[in-house]
Amino acid sequence: MEPPHYNKELDVRILGADDLPQARQVAGRAFGEHCEDWYGTETTLGGFDRDGTLVCSLDYQPESLWWGPAQIPAGAIGGVATDPKHQGRGHAGGLMVQAIHYLREQGCYLCPLWPFSYRWYGKFGWAYQAPVLELKVWPDLVRQADAAPGMVRRATTDDATTVHQLYTDGAQLRNGQSVRSESFWQKENILRELWVLEGESSGLDCCALVKLENMQRGQGRKVTVRELHGAFFASQLRLVRSLAELDGVVSLNFELPAGSLFLQAFPERFDIAVNQAMDLRVLHVEQALGHLKPPDDLRTQVSFEVIDWVIGADKPLAVTAHAEGGQVEVVDRANKDALRCDINTFTRLYAGSLTAAQARELGCLEGGDPAVGTACDALLYGRVPYRSWVEAG
Prior knowledge:
By secondary structure, the chain is α+β, with helices and mostly antiparallel strands. Helices cover 25% and strands 35% of the residues.
């Protein structure tokens, strides 16, 4: 991997309250929009040139991500901005390189973001992972679904505990969603869009973040399901069926992970489109592997040699992961049959968006043999990541 041009002398530091107005001005000029509510103290990194001028900035959100049943410490990056007057000088690249080291020091082992350019972020180790799909379905098709409508209502603060459990149950079926606290569901802006489906006997069966708005053209209301939670498709379908029965609904849109069964649920669909896509970077290979929670009955060993010019330009990172009893032990050495790749490919293997065989066919994975590749896929478990519009980054 050829490292990109970037400013190695950029002075990067955490911004205090006095620097935030200037950082917001930088972002406003870079994005051409109102950025007065961007950034915050203790989570904003700023880059200063030799003259002490703030030329670029970004914000990060320290959090953990659900990785199946595991929780991986992470830092989501957002708001990467360079003042247009100072663009083209490698400032943003210098900021990203130092941000990688800073997040590692903070104990973050993964980093998701919404990229403005896959190619540019790819130079610094981020890899394209998975799209979020927008599905449009005619309400009449939903009303024909084999699912009886139930009682849906807006959530209250009393629902937070059950909603939190429904969210967690669903998030553990894939990789990449944030580990949220119960208090998250009591935030005013979240509670305003939170709907629940009451159970047929008691409790709640499903919940969703739902945006209701009047159609811009014509009459009626448009329903957009922005997050859909719970572990069972039957409950999710019943919630959607119930939303279709709300008064005046003439349009139903869903924002969904790529593997959602809703993509197969209706014989006719209005439209499907890619709405946004996440980039991801493994910041610390050894720690990211060590946090995995593979199946209890998996007993395997896989070695990796990973080229990451940001972390170790002189030689590949060498690790061997031993999985047994639902835990992973990692040592900092590799066997002679190690799988060899760069950090972009390792990230895609880790996240489940590529199998070892697919990576080998693409020419971005060497070493090992078919048995090692199979062990790699079993260890990393193949859940494709998903992050919704609510997630930081």
